[in-house]
Write a structure and sequence with these properties.
The chain is built from nine helices and 13 strands. The strands form three sheets. A five-stranded mixed sheet has the order 2-1-3-10-4, with helices on both faces.
Length: 297
């Protein structure tokens, strides 16, 4: 019987919200379990350059995974998109809860009123530090200026409203989880392709502890989210990339019959884009290989 669980997470408002969500979920399964949330500062939290300029991958998870290996925590809660495709052999993603909306959104300054993309003026200034978002913005809006921006959600929104830029590109999932009410335009994820596993959480633990948490894992895990994000991460592994390349992939299960798949990659200034459907029963490796093959054929 599990009496106490220590959950490791980053200290940002979003990360803590996500960890509390998982803690509440665990207590729905068993209200007698005492849960402690331990904040761990990661290399990514201290980074002064854009992620794609950093030589290392997994900068937002490294120290948390070390805490798991050292048995300082029992479970870790990550934004799955922060996790490298290459896993630490002693660790495992135990559970993947239901995915939030994976879409990106365009958030305007408060004094700007827009209802659709046609309302965005040609001299508008966008802000993002994501190579994927920069690539897609340049593909859709070649006449727009794009500034680099860093900081947590609140910091970026404050910079936006202070006039640093006219529009931010952000993950809709982050706004939803934090309960932030803003005017925004949701971008179609099959056109403006999200990052791998965007909107999904990963609950990670020590591989040898899997059986200990088996019942909780079954309660937390969402099959459709797990299988779709697993395929996306397999494609990322085949490409060998992370934040260092402009790449996006979204696999959407449709009524347990098929996957609707959208992916893109920019290489040597050229964008390769694919949009197709695959049989839901097809092997995950085969689906990932097909996405990779179509991107590079």
């Amino acid at each position: 019987m599990i009496e106490r669980i220590v959950i490791g997470t980053r200290g940002s408002k979003l990360a803590l919200t996500q960890a509390r969500y998982v803690a509440e979920f665990i207590n729905k399964f068993d209200s007698t379990i005492k849960i402690e949330i331990k904040i761990i500062k990661t290399t990514g939290d201290k980074l002064m350059v854009a992620l794609h300029e950093a030589p290392e991958r997994g900068l937002f998870v490294k120290e948390i995974e070390e805490a798991l290996l050292n048995k300082d925590i029992d479970l870790a809660v990550h934004s799955m998109k922060d996790m490298p495709a290459e896993a630490v052999s002693e660790l495992e993603i135990f559970a993947v809860p239901v995915r939030e909306d994976p879409s990106d959104v365009i958030v305007p300054r408060k004094e700007l009123s827009i209802e659709n993309l046609d309302d965005i003026s040609p001299n508008s200034v966008f802000a993002t530090s994501s190579l994927r978002r920069i690539s897609l913005l340049n593909n859709f809006f070649t006449f727009k200026e794009i500034k680099d921006i860093r900081g947590n959600i609140d910091t970026r929104l404050k910079k936006l409203d202070e006039g640093f830029c006219d529009y931010l590109i952000m993950a809709k999932a982050a706004l939803n989880r934090l309960g932030i009410k803003r005017n925004y335009i949701t971008l179609d994820p099959f056109t403006f392709v999200p990052a791998v596993a965007q909107g999904a959480l990963a609950i990670q633990g020590r591989r040898k502890d899997f059986n200990r948490f088996a019942k909780i894992i079954k309660f937390l895990d969402d099959f459709n989210t797990r299988i779709s994000t697993d395929i996306e991460r397999r494609v990322l592994k085949l490409i060998g990339g992370g934040c260092q390349i402009p790449f996006g992939c979204y696999v959407c299960p449709i009524k347990n019959k098929s996957f609707k798949i959208s992916a893109f990659i920019e290489k040597d200034g050229n964008i390769r884009r694919v949009l197709f459907e695959e049989d839901f029963k097809k092997d995950k490796n085969e689906v990932a290989n097909e996405i990779y093959k179509r991107l590079f054929s």
